[in-house]
Design a protein that fits this description.
- By secondary structure, the chain is of the alpha+beta class.
- 26% of the residues lie in helices and 26% in strands.
- The protein contains four helices and seven strands; from the N terminus they run βααβαβββββα.
- The two termini are 19 Å apart.
- 27% of the residues are buried.
Length: 166
């Protein structure tokens, strides 16, 4: 990932540890290494957003992962809600904010819709397709093997941004 060299700063969404436990078992292991990088980039916006700026932002909001990975953000009664097409998350708290960096804790891992929808040719009349399994569920066990690695990398990424813009 490249550091944002503009004066627009960055916004980082950091999922809680428990949000990784809420994922369906094996979800993170099912991603390729490239998708794991894109997942981390999906949690970064290439400009600083204050909570009040989310109220006037236009959807979809572009992420550091690129144009194929947008987020939709709505604000209701000072609560910021994020929708990805797979995940509905809420900004739980502000971790850090200044003119170049905003870090917000979110209550769910933001999962890009494109990870779960695969383009395919038109089905033949006799083909029936099963809907993809949901990546989250309350009866899921934690996928701890990669969850801690991704959490650690996201925290490290936030620290790098802090150091770069301090």
């Amino acid at each position: 990932m490249q550091l944002n060299s503009s004066k627009q700063g960055v916004t980082l969404f950091a999922p809680t540890d428990s949000s990784f436990s809420d994922l369906k078992a094996g979800t993170l292991n099912s991603f390729t290494d490239e998708q794991k990088v894109e997942l981390m980039q999906f949690h970064i916006l290439p400009s600083v957003f204050s909570i009040s700026q989310f109220q006037t932002s236009s959807n979809p909001i572009r992420t550091q992962a690129g144009g194929s990975y947008p987020l939709n953000v709505t604000v209701s009664a000072n609560q910021v809600n994020i929708t990805t097409g797979v995940t509905n998350a809420t900004v739980a708290s502000t971790v850090y904010t200044d003119s170049q960096l905003a870090v917000y804790q979110v209550d769910h891992v933001l999962l890009p819709l494109s990870f779960f929808v695969t383009p395919s040719p038109a089905p033949s009349p006799s083909t029936h397709r099963k809907a993809p399994d949901s990546p989250s569920g309350s009866d899921a066990t934690p996928d701890s093997s990669n969850a801690n690695v991704i959490t650690t990398k996201m925290v490290a990424c936030g620290i790098l941004f802090l150091a770069a813009f301090a």
